[in-house]
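Response to reviewer comment R2.3. The reviewers asked that we include at least one raw input/output pair. We reproduce the pair for DUF1697 domain-containing protein here without editing.
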Amino acid sequence: MVDPGKIFVALFSGINVGGNRIVKMAELRSFFEGLGFSDVATYVQSGNAVFRAKKGDAAALANLLEAAFETKWGFHSRIMVRDLSWFEKLVRENPYPEIAADHTKLHAYVLEREPTADEVARLTEKCTGPERFEIKGDVLYLSAPNGLGKSVFAGLIPRTLKVPGTARNWRSVQALLEMAAHAGEK
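Raw output as returned:
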C-alpha cells in the first residue's frame, strides 16, 4: 500500500490585511500544488490552507513554505504549520467551552513555540480588562467578551508576549479542523 501522506494546516500571517499584501486563494492553492502537495484547500482570504504532504514534519514544511512563498510573492509571511492531530487537540483542550458557540468572542493564537514562564507573567500583568486568556503549549486561547476588534489587550499580545504567532477566531479553527479531517474525501 502506498503511503498517502499526512494532513497539515498552514496559517499565514499578514496577507490580505487591509488591502495589503494581496494573495488570491486560487493562486495560493496552485502554489501548494506546484510544490507537490495534494488535497489542497483554502479557507477564507486571510491565508489558511489544508494540504497533504508525503514527507516532512511541521517545522520543515513551514521553512519550505516560507522560503518558497517569499520567492514567489516578494514579501515574507510567517507561516505556522500544524498537523491534524494538533488541531484536534487545540479544539479538545479549549478552556472556554461556554463561549465556543460565539466565534467572535473566542480566539486561538497559534504560537511559534511555547512561551516561557517569564513571558506569560509579563502578559498576565497586561490583562486588566474583561478578557481572559490561557496558554496550553503553543496555543494561547483568548476570551474577548467584547470581540477582538474592541479588545485593547489583544493588541498588546504580540509585543508583550514576543512569541511569533497568528490568531484565528473559533469559527475558523473549527472550519479548518473540519476541512483537515475530511481532506481528500471526494
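The chain has a mean pLDDT of 91. The beta strands are 6-12, 38-42, 48-53, 79-83, 106-111, 132-136, 139-143, 165-169. Further pairs are available on request from the corresponding author.
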